[in-house]
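Thread amino acids onto this structure.
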């Protein structure tokens, strides 16, 4: 075990909050003059953004499933979709 403390410093927290803020679309649109949002507000925005991404993913997945169910499995379009879904 190293001698370094496992506690996170205020500086590290501020750096992580800044990085998180740069990832959120709403935060990127905010004018720089308005300053940085509070950490609690930023965490709430992050949770809301993740929930919206999850809903969007579910919607897209449902739409893709519906599309694949109505498509001829041997069609060129079906093959394109399958190729996009392969890792």
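Threaded sequence (87 positions):
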């Amino acid at each position: 075990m190293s001698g370094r403390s496992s506690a996170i410093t205020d500086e590290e927290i501020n750096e992580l909050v800044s990085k998180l803020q740069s990832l959120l679309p709403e935060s990127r649109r905010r004018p720089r003059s308005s300053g940085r949002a509070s950490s609690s507000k930023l965490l709430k925005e992050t949770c809301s953004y993740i929930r919206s991404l999850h809903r969007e993913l579910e919607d897209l997945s449902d739409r893709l499933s519906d599309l694949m169910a109505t498509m001829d499995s041997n069609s060129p379009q079906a093959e394109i979709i399958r190729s996009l879904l392969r890792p």
